[in-house]
């Protein structure tokens, strides 16, 4: 299927958007934070807000917090909700864009398994159209069109945060397979290895996802290993080990943080190299909370960790940090309702 035809097919399935103004809302639903933006016709954020994701919230509570973040973003843009031409949401888990439901979410609130009508619930609050997409896929699409992926035709996006997600653009066309393509975090990097949040063993996410990193850090501290991670967490009045806390601990050469992140980098390198051997993309884009926070230095380390496992070493692709930073997901979500932004 060519690119133009593919766009028409996707557009024909998208809920009808009432174009009330040349601005659009985007929400990135993450395990620790909710990012909301308002973008203009060039994809530039003109309003932004960040709220913590409810740690124990049921789906309805999470939706209310999403709405609160969007309201604040609209206010910072000096606008009213009625000006929005629609709202896009990038979410983890099993997204059914046609039905507007989200299921099998493990890292948000208390998590939920059964499909929840997220689009409809949020639409009742915004009184406008809401479109759902996979969080990493929309973030990668934003980077491909507006960020680090612009010079390339084929890219692999890796979003290193609470979990490890992925997204693909192949020869200019987003590749979603049957709906679950890009789940690089669940590539097995060590058969029979550490248990992942998905219930399986040896997944990349089991070693690199921030949620699993925190669990390992807590176990190690209980066993007497020295670390300042949780002291930093208390000083910042956080309930979780956020990306900024990991960055601070690494800058201070905390031994446990260093050990766990080095293992994560190694496993990311193993998994990414296998994906490169299969797909031969032109570039890898590193995003997500940890990916963006740790930046170019760790992108370089991941590139080095890939090298021993890449088959065509003479054309190993670069690992680039997402140019849109932590707003990639929210901007990409907004592009779901306004795909013609240039």
Automatic annotation (TrEMBL):
InterPro entries: ATPase_NBD, ROK. SUPFAM superfamilies: Actin-like ATPase domain. It comes from the Bacteria. Pfam families: ROK (PF00480). Belongs to the ROK (NagC/XylR) family. This is Glucokinase.
């Amino acid at each position: 299927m060519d690119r133009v035809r593919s766009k028409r097919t996707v557009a024909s399935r998208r809920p009808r958007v009432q174009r009330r103004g040349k601005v659009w809302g985007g929400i990135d639903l993450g395990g620790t934070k909710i990012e909301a933006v308002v973008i203009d016709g060039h994809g530039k954020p003109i309003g932004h807000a960040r709220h913590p994701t409810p740690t124990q919230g049921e789906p309805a509570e999470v939706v209310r917090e999403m709405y609160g973040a969007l309201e604040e973003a609209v206010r910072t843009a000096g606008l009213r909700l009625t000006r929005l031409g629609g709202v896009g949401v990038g979410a983890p888990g099993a997204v059914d864009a046609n039905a507007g439901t989200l299921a099998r979410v493990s890292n948000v609130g208390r998590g939920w398994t059964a499909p929840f009508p997220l689009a409809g619930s949020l639409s009742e609050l915004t009184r406008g159209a809401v479109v759902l997409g996979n969080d990493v896929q929309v973030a990668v699409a934003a980077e491909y069109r507006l960020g680090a992926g612009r010079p390339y035709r084929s890219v692999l996006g890796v979003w290193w945060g609470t979990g490890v997600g992925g997204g693909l653009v192949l020869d200019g066309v987003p590749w979603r397979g049957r709906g679950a393509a890009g789940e690089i975090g669940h590539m097995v990097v060590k058969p029979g290895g550490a248990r992942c949040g998905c219930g399986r063993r040896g997944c990349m996410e089991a070693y690199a996802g921030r949620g699993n990193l925190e669990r390992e850090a807590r176990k190690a501290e209980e066993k007497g290993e020295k670390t300042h991670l949780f002291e930093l967490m208390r000083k910042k009045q956080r309930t979780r080990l956020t990306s900024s806390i990991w960055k601070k601990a690494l800058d201070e050469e905390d031994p446990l943080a260093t050990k766990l992140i080095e293992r994560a980098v190694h496993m990311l390198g193993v998994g990414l190299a296998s994906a490169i051997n299969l797909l031969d993309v032109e570039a890898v884009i590193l995003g997500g909370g940890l990916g963006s926070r740790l930046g170019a230095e760790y992108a370089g380390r991941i590139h080095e960790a890939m090298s021993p496992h890449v088959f065509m070493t003479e054309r190993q692709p670069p690992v680039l940090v997402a140019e849109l930073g932590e707003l990639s997901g929210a901007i990409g979500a907004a592009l779901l309702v306004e795909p013609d932004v240039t």
